[in-house]
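Most newcomers find our protein records easier to grasp once they have seen one. Read left to right, the backbone structure tokens trace the chain's path through space. Nothing more is needed to start thinking about how sequence determines fold. An example says more than a description, so a record of this kind follows:
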Amino acid sequence: MLKYIVYENTIGNTAVVRAIYHNPIPEFERENGIYLDSTVPNAETVEGMYPVLMVKLDAKELFYNYESLPELPIPDEVLLDRATNIESDLGSLLLESAADKATIATLEDTLGNLLLEVAALKGGDE
């Protein structure tokens, strides 16, 4: 089946495939494009690599170039430790917040009692 391949980043006689149009029409044509009648190959699963579809411009042949996956900036173990520490800190803060709320409730109750006593001493019973 005829396909129209749009490519970019030409290096020598090869380029990275940007788009594939099946059953192309002339409006799809671009400066960096060619017609192909070959099938798209299946990518293999290669540990630590990802496939990049390429085209050999002179042979009009598609193939995959496998490139290394980028390194993660922070290892998973470090992220797990950080998440555990954050959860622990959050738990501590929640306990502190609950203790503070209990203290505030006790102080409010004490203040209410003191206000009643002050009112009684001033003769508020009259």
Remarks:
- The chain has two domains: 3-68, 71-126.
- Residues 71-126 form one domain.
